[in-house]
């Protein structure tokens, strides 16, 4: 398991006593048959309850929407009551509206409902557009949150339209020839309504490739957008551009770190000139995966504009479309790549602005829309939950998941508005895991590895204070989440301060016969399904009696709440 923290804390006498007792109990009595290796307790676990090793943002697990939803039409369905309910389940959180097509957005301050729509089959386009218009008129008559229940036939037509549009978008991506996307005043209204109704704080990405002849940033569209948002009193944070280190390969035009720093400084000045946004947050530079070019750009940007941004943002994707089996998501070498990337980024940031918050602002199991029947299955959950644990331990303040909803296979919610496995992992995480990260102590009792054999840890354990938003648990409770990548059951014995405490188990396993490729998930044996468009299933824990060993089935993920432990680190 990757090291959780450089911080070291002394082993308590209770911890040592627990270890000695467990070792003695694991030895067979004279004449008894020696128990098999699989029958022995594998791990003795304790947590430092005195002080947290990290304190993260309350919105640590946050969300992203790609601007392509304007092009493929899904933006018009963000008012769906079910979609808003699902997003609200993951609040409080940020909602980043950004991605590859951020740098092709153009704001147009008008309310035309159909002029800027994307392509669609001719046989339904006119009636479909009329339905959208009627839906918008009905929404405008509502006060407060504007919510809708869209007819099934309307959703079916939209799915067909989105599939057609995605072929166009994919062709653009492969050819590196991108068309502009117009975000109208109506589009912004719909986007903000979704975020506001779901309890999400909107972060809006601005087009950094709108350039003047001298390659300086053209602010005309942005100023119009800021004035409109201020007039509507939309509480928005901002960012500029997406993966600027890739501009040359994407559009044949480079923006170096010095120019980008000047652009961000100009944007900060622009925000201060609009009274409503003079204290708005600004995040950037949204650098790509920290390879050579991205690191050079980040270093130059931090040197010249590190003080301008409120948090430093970068992106990470684990794999491309060449992955072809579920087991690829369980490779420890793949899971550990994030640690290396975080180390590179934080080193640059701390060189120029020590203590500046770092965000992982675009995180997904795969790029280019993901892989069908792989990145949208239970298997992808190992990457996702491990990412949350690793990022928390290494002090990443916020992780924004790409994407909450859209076309493709890396999302939390599919196009039928049904939660995918990663959504349920996220929901359980939100309900149980708080922003205070705790140090973990583990003593393994497994046999020594063979000489020369490299053993990577396949049992990953993370600990936090239980979320204060969960009123089922008093302050002072602890949540431990465990990822078992082994193909066999593993046992964990709670020791030290955790010894003889009542535990609530939330064990998440694939549902059905598809195993790791399952698209449904069960919690303690019960399949998780929405009750209706506004009601979540009850997340019922299984109570483990005090002192009982935790048994983790093979290739599963579990959350365990240690009740009434009254941990000092979690009481404040």
Short description:
This protein has 572 residues and is an alpha/beta fold.
CATH fold naming of the largest domain: TIM Barrel
Fraction in beta strands: 15-25%
CATH class of the largest domain: Alpha Beta
* Total of DSSP H or I helical runs spanning 4+ residues: 15
Rg, nearest Å = 25 Å
Level-2 CATH architecture of the largest domain = Alpha-Beta Barrel
Separation of termini?
A: 29 Å
Low-confidence stretches: 1-12, 14-40, 113-125, 446-455
Please describe the biggest sheet, giving its number of strands, its sense, and whether it closes into a barrel. Answer: 9 strands, antiparallel
Approximate shape: globular
Helix content: 25-40%
Number of domains: 2
Task: Provide the structure class.
Answer: alpha/beta
Count the beta strands.
Answer: 23
CATH superfamily annotation of the largest domain: Glycosidases
- The overall pLDDT, averaged over residues, is 87
Structural account:
With about 575 residues, the chain is of the alpha/beta class. It has helices at about 15-25, 70, 80-90, 120-140, 150-175, 185-200, 220-230, 245-250, 255-275, 290-305, 330-335, 335-350, 380-395, 420-430, 570; strands spanning about 45, 55, 60-65, 95, 105-110, 180-185, 200-205, 235-240, 280-285, 310-320, 360-365, 400, 435-440, 440-445, 460-465, 480-485, 490-495, 505-510, 520-525, 525, 540-545, 550, 555-560. The chain has 2 domains: about 40-55 and about 435-445 and about 455-570, Golgi alpha-mannosidase II (Immunoglobulin-like); about 55-115 and about 120-435, TIM Barrel. It is built from 15 helices and 23 strands. The strands form 4 sheets. Strands 2, 13, 15, 16, 18, 19, 20, 21 and 23 form a 9-stranded antiparallel β-sheet that branches. It has an 8-stranded parallel β-barrel with strand order 3-4-7-8-9-10-11-12, surrounded by 6 helices. Helix 3 crosses helix 6. The chain is globular and about 70 Å long. The protein starts with 12 loop residues before the first helix and ends with a helix.
């Amino acid at each position: 398991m990757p090291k959780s923290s450089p911080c070291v804390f002394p082993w308590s006498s209770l911890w040592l006593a627990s270890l000695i007792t467990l070792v003695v109990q694991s030895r067979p009595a004279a004449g008894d048959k020696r128990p098999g290796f699989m029958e022995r307790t594998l791990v003795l676990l304790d947590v430092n309850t005195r002080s947290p090793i990290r304190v993260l943002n309350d919105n640590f697990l946050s969300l992203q929407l790609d601007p392509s939803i304007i092009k493929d039409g899904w933006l018009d369905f963000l008012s769906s009551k079910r979609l808003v309910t699902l997003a609200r389940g993951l609040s409080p959180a940020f909602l980043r509206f950004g991605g590859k097509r951020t740098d092709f957005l153009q704001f147009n301050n008008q309310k035309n409902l159909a002029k800027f729509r994307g392509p669609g089959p001719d046989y339904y386009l006119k009636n479909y557009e009329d339905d959208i218009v009627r839906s918008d008129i009905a929404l405008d008559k509502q006060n407060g949150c504007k919510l809708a229940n869209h007819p099934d036939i309307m959703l079916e037509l939209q799915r067909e339209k989105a599939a057609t549009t995605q072929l166009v978008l994919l062709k653009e991506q492969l050819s590196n020839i991108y068309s502009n996307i117009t975000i109208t005043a109506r589009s912004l209204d719909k986007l903000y309504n979704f975020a506001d109704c779901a309890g999400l704080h909107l972060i809006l990405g601005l087009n950094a490739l709108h350039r003047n002849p001298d390659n300086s940033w053209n602010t005309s569209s942005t100023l119009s957008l800021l004035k409109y948002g201020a007039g509507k009193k939309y509480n928005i944070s901002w960012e500029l551009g997406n993966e600027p280190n890739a501009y040359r390969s994407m559009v044949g035009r480079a923006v170096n770190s010095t120019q980008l720093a000047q652009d961000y400084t100009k944007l900060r000045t622009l925000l201060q000139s609009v009274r409503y946004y003079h204290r708005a947050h600004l995040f950037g530079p949204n650098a790509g995966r920290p390879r050579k070019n991205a690191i050079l750009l980040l270093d130059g940007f931090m040197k010249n504009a590190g003080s301008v941004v409120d948090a430093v943002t970068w992106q990470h994707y684990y794999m491309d479309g060449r992955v072809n089996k579920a087991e690829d998501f369980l490779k420890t070498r793949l899971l550990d790549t994030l640690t290396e990337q975080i180390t590179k980024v934080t080193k640059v940031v701390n060189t120029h602005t020590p203590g500046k918050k770092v965000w992982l602002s675009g995180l997904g199991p795969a790029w280019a829309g993901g892989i069908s029947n792989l990145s949208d299955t239970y298997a992808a959950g190992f990457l996702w939950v491990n990412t949350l644990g690793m990022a928390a331990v290494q002090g990443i303040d916020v992780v924004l998941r790409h994407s909450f909803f859209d076309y493709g296979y890396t999302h939390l919610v599919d196009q039928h508005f049904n939660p995918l496995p990663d959504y349920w992992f996220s929901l359980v995480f939100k309900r149980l895991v708080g922003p205070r990260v705790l140090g973990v102590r583990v003593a393994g009792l497994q046999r020594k590895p063979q000489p020369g054999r490299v053993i990577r840890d396949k049992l990953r354990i993370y600990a936090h204070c239980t979320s204060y938003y969960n009123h089922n648990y008093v302050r002072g409770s602890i949540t431990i989440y465990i990822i078992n990548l082994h193909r066999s059951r593993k046992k964990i014995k709670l020791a030290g301060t955790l010894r003889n405490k009542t535990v609530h188990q939330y064990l998440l396993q694939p549902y059905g016969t598809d195993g790791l490729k399952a698209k449904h998930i069960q919690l303690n044996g019960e399949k998780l399904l929405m009750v209706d468009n506004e009601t979540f299933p009850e997340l019922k824990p299984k109570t483990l009696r005090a002192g009982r060993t935790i048994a983790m089935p093979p290739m599963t993920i579990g959350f365990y709440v240690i009740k009434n432990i009254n941990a000092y680190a979690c009481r404040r």
